[in-house]
Aspartate carbamoyltransferase catalytic subunit (Nitrosomonas halophila), 1071 residues
Amino acid sequence: MVDPKLEEVIQFERTRPDVHGDAHPKKLLRAIVEEGNHLAKLSEQHIFSSDQFDRATLLQLFRLAAKYEANPGRFSTSLNGQILISAFYEPSTRTRLSFESAWHRLGGDIMSITDRSTTGIAKGESLRDVAEMFNNYGDCVVLRDSNEESVREMMAALRIPIINAGNGTDEHPTQALADLYTIFKWRPDLVTNEPGEKLKLCLVGLPAKMRTVRSLLKLMCHFPDVFSKITIVNDKQKNEMFAHGQLAQLEQAGLQIDAANDLYEVLPEADVVYINAIAWEGNAYKQYGKRYHLNAQSPLKSDAIVLHPLARSVELCTSLDDTPHNWYFSQARGAVFLRMALLTCLVKRAERVLDVI
Amino acid sequence: MVDPKLEEVIQFERTRPDVHGDAHPKKLLRAIVEEGNHLAKLSEQHIFSSDQFDRATLLQLFRLAAKYEANPGRFSTSLNGQILISAFYEPSTRTRLSFESAWHRLGGDIMSITDRSTTGIAKGESLRDVAEMFNNYGDCVVLRDSNEESVREMMAALRIPIINAGNGTDEHPTQALADLYTIFKWRPDLVTNEPGEKLKLCLVGLPAKMRTVRSLLKLMCHFPDVFSKITIVNDKQKNEMFAHGQLAQLEQAGLQIDAANDLYEVLPEADVVYINAIAWEGNAYKQYGKRYHLNAQSPLKSDAIVLHPLARSVELCTSLDDTPHNWYFSQARGAVFLRMALLTCLVKRAERVLDVI
Amino acid sequence: MVDPKLEEVIQFERTRPDVHGDAHPKKLLRAIVEEGNHLAKLSEQHIFSSDQFDRATLLQLFRLAAKYEANPGRFSTSLNGQILISAFYEPSTRTRLSFESAWHRLGGDIMSITDRSTTGIAKGESLRDVAEMFNNYGDCVVLRDSNEESVREMMAALRIPIINAGNGTDEHPTQALADLYTIFKWRPDLVTNEPGEKLKLCLVGLPAKMRTVRSLLKLMCHFPDVFSKITIVNDKQKNEMFAHGQLAQLEQAGLQIDAANDLYEVLPEADVVYINAIAWEGNAYKQYGKRYHLNAQSPLKSDAIVLHPLARSVELCTSLDDTPHNWYFSQARGAVFLRMALLTCLVKRAERVLDVI
């Protein structure tokens, strides 16, 4: 017989407990009416910045993501014959696997580049020539590069769509889409005609330097009716927290932006707590806000949800993992479906999955 | 016309000569009756250690592997829609390609991680968080890591199955499964009601340090009726050859374990000679037993078979490659089918390939 | 509304202007009659050197490539169930993606090795053993290695076909096939019974050291009726430009080979200008012919076409990109279809795509 201690170690369960962020996407599906025409423009645009979306397109993207999440195995041939070039010049496994998983789930093929030094760039090749090469070999590109300008140079020469999966400290639009998708799965009423209480969002991070934060704040500009207040928490003064013009854009959109240094003063009234502690700068990770920690003892509202783009370190304690506050795992899971929705539109396959064309 | 010397260099044959370990798997298929219920438990277990198997499950795995080997192209859609995360943090091409080939042959999709430094671990991410990420992005994981504990940490958080493809010096269970599968393809009578002569096995290697050897000896514990004697050959004293508790486990299972320093004294009576010379320790390969060599002049029994987990170096001379003793190439080939069988069970697709469900 | 400057950056077009080398492959399709029997020998040969082809086989390969290029999505299941081992031990993204794209377009599966240090070679494994491993795990191999002899050692032990994708400074046969395919798409009359004017080709490069050039010159030996003169341009004396025996082979085939140091003297009468400036030597790229540059002001014939195997640097100026001389992008695009044709034949799937079997 097998040693009971070994038996315990090797047994596993496939199901997950419901309390950890599993609001069924069906609620969001029902909350938004399908209007596929708002997705049409996505088939002729690169995905570069959160600034390029409008509210109607966002809602349809979230609806399509919810459709995928509610029927995970149904659309497994939608991207048949399509090739994704997965180019991660800056180290990443999480985002790369998230995109590659999304593309596989829809039946497409993938070519990966994970080492910048093997590319023609080592031979002195220009990014425009790399883009022309991609035009001939694939149907869609995902790029992460610590060099902020690489994606711009490539967009100028590409005739297939590219998704910016993180360019230096600038933006990471699909992460922001996934974050907002998670919030609306939790509170689908907020995108209906009968929304409930608006949300107070506490954001622990540095908007000037963190691309995930920059992209998310921009997306929230389309939903000033959803967020009553956004409080940015870090150890800087308010006039040092933002990049040039960043705060102005948010306020012009109608968002109420506060700043605070004391996390525990903000938490008790926050409905959503978003926390991130690292930024990729130059060619290394830098930690910001070391003194801000969330754990099971933090003074969170009883029904507050916590989001984190991951990877996390000490700023988000594992003691929160088994509490109902944990929506960061759901956030990662939903990101695959969100990316499935976006990729489908980019390569003009939306007509295979929408009900009305 | 093409230069004859060039013609000779570029021409190749697809078929292989029968003498080199091509016992048709059909003999083993007939020797074991299909009893698929013994495979059921494999759909809720990680594959971590040779200790977790029982004899009935092993025989059904070998039977399913033989079924795949006898009909290599028949089940090419069995893993449709399934994603494998192939994580090889310790350098390997052989084992990685063996698993990836198995998964492709069954129609599944693959995401590879071959560079530990690109993972979140570089960002200070815990293995439990890496496991949670894998839960969201794939259906099965294969992991090789020189850090022995990594797989344990991941098993605790994974809700999809993981196969330990080598954890430091600890274990490499699927290699052992492939080794035993090869032995039973050679002598299928040994698993029937009318077995022939038992086997004397000569094992050149260091049980304390070589994970392939450790895993194989454990599996042999389920077949004390098959092996009359196992002689371990290396340059150490018997009390230094084994890790703590290792020899006791083998003897309690009814195996007769001898030790010897002189290879040429043991060879003339060995039916199976298993040889391995390297172990992965820390972060480099270490050679053991440099003075033990097998070649075509070694005093092997005329019908003895030689096994080696590969890669090999000087310890197994190429002069044996074209002799009937060469079952190490067959061992590598059969490993793909064995892994196909195991992977099929892990992701609950066995019902697509078994005759009786 | 979206900022117009952003809108401009993210919008893209999928179509390409016709002037840049888009001679429809249908012209070449009509110019060559299908005679599939000439492709039969490709199913039992490794693809090692340009020397191994004959004229009839080349024409059929070009025809099959043109068939693929004219019907890009039609044959998307031809390589179902086939596994390619894509082994690029010398840094490359361009050639690797070209092959992988070709294999994906035909519905096959791929396993990539991009880091020599992870292979058994790091464990002291021989190339013959690596080949035997490949025999068990895949159906076709593509190999690039700065070590010129690696592919020879592997061919001796492989029972599946291997394509030499560049071995040191020796050869790169599929690049040459793609180059000649491009020339014949441009001037299909040259392979008919009523050819027009022969071509004068100007080749800027070093035949002794550049594998793309070496392979291309060899292929041109089968078409002395197509090229009236080939002028090699570099900064060496004629007796230093060629490797031992290289010039003799070309002249014996009936090619008229001139040499020159002054590019601008040769250009005005060249119909085809082929330029390359780098060679891989040892384990780094070396630049040759730094003083030879082509740009929009170069004295090219008005209808001359320019070819470059890419990656390029300053020797081929981007000012030529938007001129009708630019056939180097078409060259890269056609290379995928040429590789699709060759790979189909190698794994014995030509009968799935030929009209007459």
Q: What stands out?
A: The interface with chain C takes residues 1-3, 6-7, 9-16, 73, 76, 88, 91-94, 97-98, 100-101, 104-105, 112, 114-115, 278, 285, 310-313, 318, 329, 332-333, 335-336 of chain B (CB under 8 Å). The CA atoms of residues 40 and 94 of chain B lie 29 Å apart.
